[in-house]
Specification:
The chain has helices spanning about 1-35, 50-70, 75-90, 100-110, 115-130, 135-150, 155-165, 185-220, 230-245, 245-255; strands at about 40, 50. The protein has about 260 residues and is an all-alpha fold. The chain has a two-stranded antiparallel ribbon.
């Protein structure tokens, strides 16, 4: 009986293997029968209709640029740097955690960029969704409010620097005004200005907490308390003063007010 069962098991395994080989052998035939359609069809209005695989590829390629757009073309850079310096000035290295700071910075960015995003939606997306303008026209129209936002927050010296580095200030074709500059010049100038402004705000935030640390360290040294870390004594004092002064309200309102009129 055991030999018979073993024979049946072997025959069954051989049958399964043969079926799998037949299935894999049929795969190339099916692949050749239904090839992936990669095409682009010109439209009557001058646009182009891409096939589904091409649209999917373009969509996921655009998604990979979203982090760069969020970091480099919005207020996110200034907000997250100021919040991080605020946490460092308090002396709480992991509180609030990074997830909380990133979430707060993200929603503050959406709040600050609200008017600009509304203009992009009304002037570019809605006409494009109604098929009144092409994709290229929608892209050009939508970039105007974003460029205006960045230019309002960019220092003239930074714009001059990158204009000079790009050699756009030479010849008769030099831009007459800042809005005529290409986006490849405006973005790095905007980021440079945002970094400088963020560190300036961070410096002003650091000063009161630095004074508290110095006072606590001086008092403890005068009292001869060498074995106790001044950080342990200064931390609750800084937290108490920060809460009593409603520090988060002041910080967030100052960040939002720094973009007033954008």
């Amino acid at each position: 009986m055991r030999a018979t069962d073993a024979g049946r098991a072997a025959a069954k395994a051989f049958g399964i293997a043969l079926a799998l080989c037949a299935a894999f052998a049929c795969l190339p035939a099916h692949a050749d029968a239904t090839p992936i359609q990669v095409s682009a069809t010109p439209l009557a209005g001058g646009g182009t209709q891409y096939s589904i695989p091409v649209q999917t590829l373009l969509f996921f390629t655009a998604l990979s640029f979203l982090p760069a757009v969020l970091l480099m073309m919005t207020s996110f850079t200034r907000v997250i740097i100021v919040l991080s310096l605020m946490r460092s000035a308090l002396g709480t290295q992991t509180t609030p955690p990074n997830q909380v700071l990133l979430g707060l910075a993200l929603f503050l960015t959406l709040f600050i960029m609200g008017p600009t995003l509304d203009k992009v939606y009304d002037e570019a997306y809605v006409p494009y969704a109604q098929q009144k303008i092409t994709f290229d026209q929608a892209l050009a129209t939508g970039s105007v409010p974003v460029k205006g936002f960045m230019l309002k927050q960019t220092r003239a010296t930074d714009l001059e620097l990158f204009t000079r580095l790009a050699r756009l200030d030479e010849g008769a074709a030099a831009p007459k005004q800042a809005s005529d500059l290409p986006i490849r010049v405006i973005i790095p100038a905007f980021v440079t200005s945002e970094l400088k402004t963020a560190f300036q705000i961070g410096f002003m935030v650091y000063i009161p907490f630095l004074v508290i640390d110095m006072v606590v360290a001086s008092v403890m040294m005068a009292m001869g308390m060498m074995m106790l870390s001044p950080v342990l004594v200064a931390l609750p004092i800084k937290l108490m003063l920060f809460v009593l002064a409603d520090g988060w309200n002041l910080l967030v309102s100052s960040l939002v007010a720094s973009y007033a009129g954008s």
